[in-house]
Amino acid sequence: MLFSSITFLYYFLPLVLILYFAVPKNLKNWVLLISSLIFYGWGEPKYILLMGLSIVVQYILGILIERHSDTKKAKFWLVISICFSIGLLGYFKYVDFFIRNVNSVTGLSIPLLSIALPVGISFYTFQILSYTIDVYRKEARAQKNIVHLATYVVLFPQLIAGPIVRYVDIASALENRSHSFEKWRYGLRRFIFGLGKKVLIANSLGEICEIFKKTEQSTVLFYWMYAIAFSLQIYFDFSGYSDMAIGLGKLFGFDFLENFNYPYISRSISEFWRRWHMSLGTWFRDYLYIPMGGNRVKKSRWILNIMVVWMLTGLWHGAAWNFVIWGLLFALLLMNEKLWFEKVMKKLPKFISHIYVLFFVIISFVIFDAANMAEAVERISSMLGMGRIKAMDIQSLYYFRSYGIILILSIIGCTPLPKLCIENIRKMKWADRALVILEPIICIILLLTITAYLVDASFNPFLYFRF
User: Would 1 be classed as within a structural domain?
Assistant: First the structure.
C-alpha cells in the first residue's frame, strides 16, 4: 500500500486513526501492530511470516543478551542476532547477485534463484539490529513485551522506506506517549506537504526521466535534463516520504528524527552526507564505522574503514555493481576532502564549492539510476559531449520548454528559500495571524489537488521501495 494512494488516504488511514483513539491506552499498540501488518501485507502477505519470525527470534535474543550481560554469552547471542538478520537480508537481496558473479568469473551456469525482495527489508533489518546492539551496549533495556517490540519493527509510518528509527529513540514512547492538538496540527501539515512533494513534484520529475529513457535519440541538453531531473526526483521522492512518515508519527504520538536537511545547499561532500538520508548515515557511523575504529586509527586503517563503510552503503541500496561504484565514488571524494582539499575548499567562493558538490552528486545519481555500469558510462560521457551527439535539437528544446517551470520550481524548493520567506512573513504580526487562519485552507486545497492528480495519474512509484 502506498501513502500516495486513494486507498490509504481515504480508507486505511482514517479508519486506523478512529480505532486508535477509540480504544483504551493499553490497546493502542495492538491497533498499530495489526494495522501495520495489514498495511505491509496488502501487497505481499506471505512476507508477514518472515517479519514475524525475525521479531520472535530477536525478541528472545534481546532477552538473552541482557540476561548474560558482561559475559561472553552476551557477545555470542549478539553475534547470533547479527548473523540471523544479515543472513536473511543477504539471502533475499544478494544471493542472485553472488551467483551471477560466480558464474561470470568461473564460467559456470549455476541457476539463479529469482527470489522476490521483500519490501522494506533493508530498513527493518537495520532497525532490528539497532535494538539488539543497543541492548548489548546497555544503551537500552531488553523489551519484555513482544507486542511493543513488534510495534516498533512494523510501525507502518516508516516501515517501507524509513527513516531508519532506532529503538532507543522511541523506546519510552512505545509504552507511554502523549498526544496534543499541536502535534496533530504539525503532523497533518507535515504529512500533506510531504505528500505534495511526492505527488506534485517528484512524479512530474519522474515523467521527464521516463521520457528520456524511452527516447532513442538524445542530446547533451536532454542528458543533463534527465540527470538533474532524477537528482531532484529522488530527493523530493525520498524526503517527501520521510516528511509523511514524520507527520504520521506525530499523529500517533511518536517523534521521529529528521532525515533530510537541504542537502543540495552543501559546500562539501562531507556536508552533503550530513544532510542526506541522515538516519542511514548515523546508523553506519554508530554501528559500523566507529566500532571499526573510525578515524582514531592509522591512516591506512582509516582508508580501509571508509572504503568498507561506503562499499556496504552502496550495497545496502541494491545488489548491483553500479551501487558499489556509487558508494566507492563517495568514499574517494570523502577521503580526498579529508586528506587534501578540506582547507582549500573553505577558502573557495561559495558558488564554486556548490558547483563542485552538485556536479559530483548529479554524476553519482546517474550511476545510481543506471541498469549497469556500461549504461552509466554512456550517459556520463554523453553529458560531457562525447559520443558524437548533438548539443540540442527541436525535441530536446520542446521538452525543456515543457518541463522548464517544474525544474526551476524544484530547484528553488530544495533550498531553504521558501522556508525563510515564510519565517520572514511570520515576523509581521498581522501576517502571522493571517497564516494561522489560511494554513488549514491551504492544506485542504493542496490535499484536493493531490487527490485529483492521484485519480488521474498512472505514474506513482516510490523509488526507495526497491531497497
Answer: no
